[in-house]
């Protein structure tokens, strides 16, 4: 395509047409992934420079995050880093031991929500086969290896 063909409808056909005019008149297929030229971002123009904002945390999530954090404390003359959850439990128990009824109610209400603790099965619940395997293992484990003769 020659310059004269592009400039036929321009007021001065011999004069070069600006690049923006050439883009407007150029045949361009608009479709998926090909937006119209006039709606495209210009140079150095970013659409969303800071990105999508993070979702707002709920109060329970914020509390959980804070309880998982660490705090430096001095216990029995030693500086330690403990989880905030453990510190809160220690403080609550200390308050409970001082005779605070509200602390007792808070602890008992919280303990109701905890899942029941699972304990290891008793030895009595094991079958005879299990017992013989365990005894054989313990015998092998506690047996001393034979002394190897040292070459002189």
- Mean pLDDT figure: 76
The biggest beta sheet, please? 2 strands, antiparallel
Termini Cα gap: 98 Å
- Uncertain segments: 1-7
Beta content comes to: 5-15%
Order of helices and strands: HHHEEHHH
Shape by Cα distribution:
extended
Helix tally equals 6
| Rg (CA only) | 39 Å
Please give the order of strands in the largest beta sheet: 1-2
Structural class: mainly alpha
Explain this structure:
The protein is mostly helical and 152 residues long. The protein has a domain at 59-113. Helices cover 41% and strands 8% of the residues. The protein has six helices and two strands. It has helices at residues 3-6, 19-25, 59-68, 84-97, 101-113, 128-142, and strands spanning 70-75, 78-83. The protein has a two-stranded antiparallel ribbon with strand order 1-2. A hairpin with a 2-residue loop joins strand 1 and strand 2 (78-83). Helix 4 (84-97) crosses helix 5 (101-113). The chain is extended, with a radius of gyration of 39 Å. It starts with a helix and ends in a 10-residue tail after the last helix. The relative contact order is 0.04. Residues 1-7 have low confidence and may be disordered.
């Amino acid at each position: 395509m020659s310059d004269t063909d592009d400039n036929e409808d321009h007021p001065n056909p011999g004069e070069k047409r600006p690049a923006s005019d050439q883009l407007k008149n150029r045949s361009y297929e608009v479709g998926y992934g090909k937006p119209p030229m006039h709606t495209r971002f210009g140079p150095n123009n970013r659409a969303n420079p800071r990105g999508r904002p993070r979702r707002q945390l709920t109060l329970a999530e914020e509390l959980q995050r804070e309880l998982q954090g660490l705090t430096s404390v001095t216990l029995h003359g030693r500086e330690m880093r403990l989880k905030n959850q453990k510190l809160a439990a220690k403080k609550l128990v200390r308050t409970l031991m001082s005779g605070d009824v509200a602390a007792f109610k808070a602890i008992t209400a919280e303990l109701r929500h905890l899942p029941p603790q699972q304990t290891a099965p008793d030895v009595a619940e094991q079958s005879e086969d299990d017992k013989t395997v365990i005894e054989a293992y313990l015998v092998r484990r506690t047996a001393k290896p034979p002394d190897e003769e040292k070459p002189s």
